[in-house]
Amino acid sequence: PDTSSTPNGSAHNWGLARCTQLDSTSLGTTISLPNNGTGVNCVIIDTGVMTNHPEFLDSLGNSRVNQVAWKGGLGGSFYTDEDGHGTHVAGIMSGLTQGWARDATIYSMKIFDTDCLGVLEALQLVKVFHKQQSQPTVINMSWGYYKYYPLDHPTKTGLSDYHPYRVTSVDAEIRDMIKAGI
User: Fold this and answer.
1) Distance CA 127, CA 110 (A)
2) Which of 83, 101, 122, 167 lies at a CB distance of 3.0 to 4.6 Å from 94, suitable for a disulfide?
3) Alpha carbon 95 to chain centroid, angstroms
4) Sequential pLDDT tens for the chain (182 residues)
5) Greatest CA span in the chain, whole angstroms?
6) pLDDT per residue over 44-89, tens digit each?
7) DSSP for 100-155?
């Protein structure tokens, strides 16, 4: 990305440009985002979100990352991101410079590392949260499940020993979330 862009609604970012243009033969690098995410709740289900990152500050310097006690008041590390992945995807979703929803309210839901929620518990809590809100809820879950297959396994394909697989209970929760408008 061209980091010289400003949070003014236009960004020079090949990722955002690619996602908004269907014809890759005439792919440009400049886009204009018609919506800024005002009134939208963005829930990042990941490794946490760094609440004081400059990409998540509002015009007064306050963090747009809300610290919700999802599991009844988990302590310290629940609102930190030791890995960085959750902060990274939150930046794509609603960072000031390169994000899609630059004025959205961000909620961090930590399911990895220490003091974290279980996946099904997290998805169920998002449904309850959404029902209590009068605003749209969008979630990001950029993680998955993998199984290990040794090199000599008869169904092994490709070069990796790990293969993605579906989890029926997670798929059912996600279908319920979609039906709820999330």
Assistant:
1) 16
2) 101
3) 11
4) 444 445 544 445 666 666 666 665 555 555 666 778 899 999 999 888 998 899 999 889 999 998 777 766 555 566 678 889 999 999 989 998 878 888 899 998 888 766 667 888 889 999 999 999 889 999 999 888 877 777 677 666 666 677 777 889 999 999 999 999 99
5) 59
6) 998 889 988 999 998 899 999 987 777 665 555 666 788 899 999 9
7) S-TT-EEEEEE-SSSS---HHHHHHHHHHHHHH-SS-EEEE-----EEE--TT-TT
Q: Which residues does 97 contact at the CB level (< 8 Å), separation at least 6?
A: 3, 5, 6, 7, 11, 55
Match 């809100």 to its residue by tokens. Answer: 133
| Under 8 Å between Cβ of 106 and 66 | yes
Distance between CA atoms of 14 and 29, rounded to whole angstroms? 5
Which residue reads 């394909």 in tokens?
Answer: 157
Which residues, in sequence order, are CB contacts of 112 under 8 Å at separation 6+? 46, 47, 48, 83, 85, 86, 143
Contact 19, 99 (CB under 8 A): no
Residues in the chain: 182
State the burial class of residue 3 (Cβ atoms within 10 Å of its Cβ: 0-12, 13-18, 19+): exposed
